[in-house]
Q: What sequence folds into this?
């Protein structure tokens, strides 16, 4: 299964995943696996789950965001997810973030953090949310200086637009969302769950 996203992480083989060829057949005895380009090579029963959906209008975007918010409210552990957002300018990444944050209970104006790189939020229940936009991220020193490493290692929801701009720094996402504009209203959305948490979010959103 090939990833559809730009590589944002260095691929590596985990212990036990490299097998010498069979002496007679010249073939590995391990189950055949494919390298999910840009991500870790996962065990066969943990391969990423990929789905494609169609949002006919903004109401479908809102419905998907609301479903994720309900899942996070019902299972707080899901709210510590890292969700990456891929797509061209104007595809609707920030619009989705606004719907998700509002559904989680964040009030007020939610702006794109294009210049600030990250905007922090908190829900009435105390959930910490960090909305990243790495479009203008170019100085690797900023990763440490701004405390981004600590944010990703800590609790709370992390949402990142343009994650490929921070390649080599961010961890693998639980759920990756690629949004493609087909017309003024319709979107083709590809969803990739890379972890157990991501799969649960995908199921909760109507998988």
A:
């Amino acid at each position: 299964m090939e990833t559809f996203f730009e590589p944002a992480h260095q691929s590596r083989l985990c212990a036990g995943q490299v097998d010498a060829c069979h002496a007679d057949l010249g073939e590995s005895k391990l189950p055949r696996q494919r390298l999910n380009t840009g991500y870790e090579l996962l065990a066969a029963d943990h391969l990423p789950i990929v789905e494609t959906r169609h949002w006919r209008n903004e109401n479908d975007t809102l419905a998907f965001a609301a479903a994720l918010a309900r899942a996070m409210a019902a299972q707080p552990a899901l709210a510590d997810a890292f969700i990456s957002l891929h797509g061209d300018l104007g595809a609707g990444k920030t619009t989705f973030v606004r719907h998700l944050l509002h559904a989680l209970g964040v009030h007020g104006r939610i702006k794109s953090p294009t210049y600030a790189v990250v905007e922090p939020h908190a829900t009435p229940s105390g959930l910490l949310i960090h909305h990243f936009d790495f479009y203008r991220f170019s100085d690797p020193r900023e990763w440490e200086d701004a405390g981004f490493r600590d944010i990703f290692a800590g609790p709370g929801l992390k949402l990142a637009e343009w994650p490929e701009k921070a390649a080599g720094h961010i961890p693998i996402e639980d759920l990756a969302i690629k949004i493609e504009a087909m017309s003024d209203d319709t979107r083709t959305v590809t969803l990739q769950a890379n972890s157990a948490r991501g799969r649960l979010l995908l199921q909760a959103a109507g998988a």
